[in-house]
Hints:
heterodimer, A: mainly alpha, 0% strand, B: mainly alpha, 3 helices, elongated
Amino acid sequence: MDKTNREKLFACITATSFVLDDLRIYLDTHPDDQEALDYWRKVERVRNEAVEEYTKCFGPINSYDVDVSNRWTWVDEPWPWEGRC
Amino acid sequence: MWSYERRLQYPVNIKQRNPRLAQVIMSQFGGPDGELAASMRYLSQRYSTTNKKVAGVLTDIGTEESVPLRYRR
Lengths: 85, 73
């Protein structure tokens, strides 16, 4: 099945976030591990680009990025456990 | 202090209803030995250590454990 661009981008955000969530806990107790720090920088870059692109095309995943030029839209879209993304 | 993102840590794609399994999962989340109770213990214990690394890791693990677990009705 062909994945849409939206699904691909979202999957990229999910995967890179998971890596950073795990790395964060490791780095809390290994703050000078250069290999881990390099890995963080590498994955962080990919994640930032994916989040920026996703937010621009499909709306924010972070409420700080809600576009308030017209009205408050944060609760309009279905939540992720409601069957989309 | 906490903020959340409009996404799940792991994608959920429920194809079939299973109320019995849902009950087990909800108990794992909010029950007596569930993640919610564990997360509150981590977040409370982080104040009783003087070790900065331990306090940091307890804060971050407590945060992870408290992430709401949802299932579709």
